[in-house]
Design goal:
The protein is 19% helix and 33% strand. It is an alpha+beta fold. Bound molecules: zinc ion.
């Protein structure tokens, strides 16, 4: 539904595929009539949220504003910690 490429102010956990830690793509997708899921993926396309939608941020409009991106980045750090 939506995509927004952005650069983080401080590095996050590096992508396990390419090592990138600052350039991400915010993504949002409508999953129900009034519910969207927001997540981030690496600029290389690596998406640790794949198959782990419980880590996605729930949002009514699926907007990719800074607040949602920061929440999704916190989940990115958690998901890539275990990797
Ligand atoms: Zn990557």
């Amino acid at each position: 539904m939506g995509i927004r490429r952005f650069k983080t102010l401080k590095p996050r956990n590096p992508c396990p595929e390419c090592g990138n830690a600052t350039i991400f793509r915010g993504r949002s997708e409508q999953v129900q009539e009034d519910l969207c899921e927001v997540w981030v993926e690496c600029d290389c396309g690596h998406n640790p949220f794949e198959g782990k939608s419980e880590h996605c941020i729930e949002s009514v409009w699926g907007s990719l504003d800074e607040g949602f991106l920061l929440m999704a980045l916190a989940e990115w750090d958690e998901l890539t910690e275990a990797a």
